[in-house]
Amino acid sequence: MYENGKRDNMQYIGKVIGNKEIAENIWRMDIATGKIFRPLPGQFINVLVNDTYEPLLRRPFSIFDAAIRRVTIVYKSLGPGTIALAGKKSGDKLDFIGPLGKPYIGEKEPRIGYNVIVIGGGTGAASTYYLAKYLGSKRIKFTFIQGARCKDQMVAVPEFKKLGCVFTTDDGTLGKKGFVSSALREKLTDNSTVFACGPKPMLKAVKEVCAEKKNVKVLASFEEYMGCGIGACLSCVVETKSGEYKRVCKDGTVFDLDEVVIP
Amino acid sequence: MGDGKISTAVSIGSIKLRNPVMTASGTFGYGLEFSGYMNLNNIGAIVTKGLAIKPVKGNPPQRLVETTAGIINAIGLQNIGVEAFIKEKLPRLKAYKTPVIANIYGTSADEYIAVAERLASTSVAGVEVNISCPNVKKGGLAFASDRKAIKEILCGIKKVYSRPVIMKLSPNVGPLEDIARFCEDNGADALSLINTVVGMSIDLEKRKPRLANVYGGLSGPAIKPVALAYVHKVSKAVSIPVIGIGGIMNARDALEFIVAGASAVQIGMASFRDPAASEKAAKGITDYLAAHKIRDIREMIGSLSA
Questions:
Q1: Is residue B235 exposed (0-12), middle (13-18) or buried (19+ Cβ within 10 Å)?
Q2: Which one, out of A46, A242, A244, B35, has a CA that is 20 to 30 A from the CA of A152?
Q3: Residue B183 annotated as catalytic
Q4: Cα–Cα distance measured from residue A221 to residue A254, given in angstroms and rounded to the nearest whole number
Q5: How far apart are CA B207 and CA B217, in angstroms?
Q6: Per DSSP, which regions of chain B are E strands?
Q7: Any idea what DSSP says for residue B94?
Q8: What residues does each domain of chain A span?
């Protein structure tokens, strides 16, 4: 923070050190951060994709992996922002801010139950890889489940395999045929802690399955349309059960599913 | 800042700004959100998110959408309310030397006046009165061209609040010279313009509006030429200071507004693109003055050649 003139600026001018297509329209970018960068799982960076006003806003990406001076994102090239990003070459400079948002677990906790399940769906699953690595480094045992429509839409399969991941695909082209919710049901017990990241229908299904057992805590990372990424514009809100709007970028991205309404 | 011989200081009524760069309400939260990216002491003033007498929930999402060189927002004035602002935010803002201006709004003249009255005994340097939000049904735009309402709000605030009162004007009601003069005649200390321009974005495949509120306020580089014309016209029509707002992304944009007649400027959605945009614009102004051997920013205000 800049309070009292001290600098700990969260704006970085990084350098692209790798950017390649790893699955259909799915890209992996490695960025040298220059200065020290220490994110926690579930946090994200907000990237300025070009110097023109098209697109005008930054683009948020969850952190797929990180080391002290390196951060990796995995993204789907879909719209003007991610297409511009896919055009970056090694050596290009990249302005990003972060690490942003509340993580799945803090530095000192984890206050988590004995049966830990990490579940990801689609490209949203990117944040679960860093979480799984983090849990591993804390010697916490966990079940790791990843789902996608088909094999070609699955993110970073070799990396996930190394962490003992169970795969499900809607069409059966990789792992078990079916949804992640069925794989979750097989592993779920009372008092489990479930970490989830994926599209809203997946989160809804996860919530329903988790309600079948007692005392299951579900911590899910949310995605909403962001303006600033730092809690100022109030664009990326989700509604809480008490009827307030909370910011995904600042009060999240991770929320306890008991507290929020999934639209 | 920079060369000691260069003066960037300007005044808005009795508020002294170290440079003409302010933040625009709704784009800078309560200021503190930006302390990790810039030094809040390096800008002219912080203008807060619009404050109401009670907390406001705001509109359902989707609340914001990017358009060509702009964004459209329909946040619906979500805010923590004036009491929480005074208790939770203002004490932390006191750590900085920068004046804090509270943007205020209400759904009736009485509510506007009540918020101003509550702020009268605080360290807030002035209030900016939002009579121009396009995204709420009551208050906001409904008051933008209603002279009876403007008079009631402005005169009521002046009775309970002794520091400068800035009226924020909307481009959505047509020419602003007459309303600007009306505000001046009724005691406004300064004017800020323009608020966002009513806009809309459509998802063609779904044939649905992208914003849950259907309409929202367009801001960003797309509205800069519109804003410049309004600032130029209004600053010629009144003798109180005009604060220029609309698509200012950097020092050069800011200086164009100053040349057009603005005494100060507000950086809006540029802070979303770069959270340090306001600090960078302030530094850029000093650099411009140095490069052009201009010793006082005030020489540039309204200096447009005909």
A1: buried
A2: A46
A3: no
A4: 4
A5: 20
A6: 10-12, 15-17, 21-23, 46-47, 64-67, 70-73, 100-104, 126-130, 165-168, 190-193, 197-200, 202-203, 208-209, 215-219, 242-245, 264-267
A7: T
A8: 3-100, 115-221
* pLDDT at B1 > cutoff 60: no
Write the CA distances from A128 to A196, B141, B222, B256, integer angstroms. 8, 45, 38, 48
Q: Are B255 and B222 in contact (CB under 8 A)?
A: no
**For residues B14 and B164, is the Cβ–Cβ distance under 8 A?**
yes
Q: Bridge-partner residues for A44, per DSSP?
A: A62, A100
The count of residues in chain A is: 263
Q: What angle do CA B59, B63, B67 make, to 5 degrees?
A: 150
Q: Are B171 and B224 in contact (CB under 8 A)?
A: no
Q: Identify the structural domains of chain B with CATH numbers, from first to last.
A: 10-58+76-200+219-300 (3.20.20.70)
pTM of the predicted model as reported, rounded to 2 decimal places: 0.94
**So what's the pLDDT on residue A8?**
61
Task: Name the pairing type of β-strands A65-67 and A59-62.
Answer: unpaired
Distance from CA of B30 to the nearest CA of A (A): 8
Superfamily of domain A3-100: Translation factors (2.40.30.10)
Structure tokens at A70: 């390196």
pLDDT (tens digit per residue) in B140-159: 666 778 899 999 999 999 99
Planar angle of CA B90, A60, B267, nearest 5 degrees = 45
Read off the amino acid at residue B51: L
Which CATH fold topology does A115-221 show? Rossmann fold (3.40.50)
Q: Of the residues B10, B133, B179, B222, which is catalytic?
A: B133
CB contact under 8 A, A2 and B36: yes
pLDDT at B103: 98
